[in-house]
């Protein structure tokens, strides 16, 4: 058999076996079709001497809500080696009907969960603080059923953004996931800071009552105020009890969200023991400036969608959390008019560096970015085994580093030579291919694999 591509001379990172193996890997028909020391005939041979050949990174938590025609966030993720990403997190939209006509060819493999807030908006709830009525809940159930039938990967809640969501509202929607294979619920929990453990207990209870997998989203940004180890301990105890739980974290000690959201309602200073000067406008007219009482009031009133970076978490807790064997790396990448937090462009190289500094081997560090998140989403793209999807990132382990900063948010990382999506070369030394190589993934079909 003639291969489409042979990546020759590199070291293959196997996150499942925990090994680095000097071997060649060949792709044919979008799948791994050769692994070994030979050099079978191939239409294209890529020289990977001195480089690592890793499975493509799997990002179970990003935001593609804006559906911008420039694919800015997809490009940022692809350039850092992400080959599969899951959007629709933290309750955000869009519903599948809305993006489908626009998105026939994403730059990477892209899946969506159905956001609770998006469902609320679809049934006419514009007030984030109002619990849904029984009739609205019934209509949301109908919409969610349809989304799941269309291939949604599951349901996401952003309870901190819809803080008065009632248990009845949660239960009615969560119950639809019960017993549905390979779907799960991601939750941005109800509280950050001192009440976060209450928030974690609330979602553990969802997993317990509905026998459904629950992913605690960006656990670091909710709990790294002195509570992270205890929060992770609660999740691990729930797993020991037999519940199906997972969590993810991004490698920064600052979070980012819209200034108009409930997160920035009065009281945040006490919650985080920080002040307005720890908040930095990340988009809009005050971009780059620390907030003042005047700019805070201006943005809240006139530009609630503007993104604000909150430099408020404890970095040591974040690093410890990332190195926990159950913690998946996820970007939580979100952009507004192409502006936002550097995590959209730097998360994976940065997390790998932090994990290496924490003493993990390369295969073990890579596991947090590949086979672990892939298994959390029932995807088979977390390792380069025979027959696996031909998703790979070829990088120089010495040179790999994130370059995105709070001032230069979209700067691509260094050290990545190639990214392959379904066997197509999607990135060649920092340049994305002209033709998008990705596709939408839908659960319940062969496509989802
Ligand atoms: Zn979130």
Notes on the structure:
This protein is an alpha/beta fold and 449 residues long. It folds into two domains: 3-55 and 383-448, Urease, subunit C, domain 1; 57-376, TIM Barrel. It is built from 14 helices and 25 strands. β9, α2 (96-99) and β10 (109-112) form a beta-alpha-beta unit. α4 runs parallel beside α5 and α6 packs parallel to α8. It is globular and about 65 Å long. The two termini are 24 Å apart. The model has no long low-confidence stretch (mean pLDDT 95). It binds zinc ion. Residues 90, 158, 188, 217-218 line the site of zinc ion.
Distance between the termini: 24 Å
Number of strands: 25
Main sheet record: 7 strands, mixed
Cross-sheet strand order for the largest sheet: 3-2-7-22-23-24-25
Category by helix and strand content = alpha/beta
Total domain units: 2
Shape: globular
Report the total helices. Answer: 14
Q: State the share of residues found in helices, binned by percent.
A: 25-40%
CATH superfamily of the largest domain: Metal-dependent hydrolases
Assigned CATH class of the largest domain: Alpha Beta
The CATH topology of the largest domain corresponds to: TIM Barrel
Low-confidence runs of at least 5 consecutive residues: none
Oligomer: single chain
Quick check: average pLDDT?
Answer: 95
Using only C-alpha atoms, the radius of gyration works out to: 21 Å
Bound molecules: zinc ion
Percent of sequence in beta strands: 15-25%
The CATH architecture category of the largest domain equals: Alpha-Beta Barrel
